[in-house]
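Morning!

This is the sequence you dropped in the shared folder:
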Amino acid sequence: MRVIEIAGGKGPASALTLAERAQPHPAAGEILIRVKAAGVNRPDIVQREGRYPAPPGASDVLGLEVAGEVVAVGEGVSRWTVGDRVCALLGGGGYAEYSVVDQGSALPIPAGLDFEEAAVLPETAFTVFTNVFEGGALKAGETLLIHGATSGIGVMAIQMAKAAGARVIATSRTKAKADAAKALGADISLDASSQDLAEEIKAAGGADVVLDMVGADYAELNLKSLNTFGRWVIIASLTGTKAQIDLQRVMMKRLVITGSTLRSRPAAEKARLAKAVEQTVWPWVESGQIVPRIHLRFGLDQAAQAHAELETGDHVGKVVLIP
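The structure's back. Tokens below.
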């Protein structure tokens, strides 16, 4: 089968090259998917750069989410049969014509979606659900502040929060992106290049939950923005992992600072999360409250171009590879 490999083990986007490997076979409890589309995510870039190795037992091939058809099932697989249309969260291996995944990490493609639309759901839906709704405990009537609101995660977070009855404040780095976040459903959308974010967020009543993908540079802003009993949820650190914060303010506001990664979680935990996503999020997708947003599509042999596009930061939504 065709796969994408990283020449030299790590490097720039141009290091991504097309190669041939043997088709994998599903072990007990796994399914084999003929990949029709694969989502491209920022963790793929970090792995390509040599800073995010695949967890033990996972494929070294990039790619954390796919959609396609089940073509084989391993011993003990109960839910899935050959021919089923599924999307799945992977530990790796998505940039390929075939991928294996634990049966619990796969979900049926929501009604009305094609393979490309379904391929951009798992990584974002799982991430937002576990961080915003479980770790951040966002509830109807509360306010979610999203930094990086036009990223794949940001687009999903806006839509999921609105579907759950929450208010959304979005921040972006340009007016065009702020306008895009507003069009996606954000109640208030701020342009970091021309507006005082702290003052605007304060005037809007502050936030109960912050979904932070920026990291160190926004630590002070987050402390100022959170209301009493607020939850600061960290899922990325694009501006650095180390920040100085005033612990007195954390105590006075009774804040919770939390965060998580998804990829290294055990199969049983991912299966639990998949069930929760299917129960809560899939109805929002099928009702049209959540619409997958695809920025650009590339062939598998154009993986380098796909990464270069993602690295510009100009995308609104997701980038997809089509084998």
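Headline: The two ends are 10 Å apart (CA to CA).

More detail when I'm at my desk.
O.
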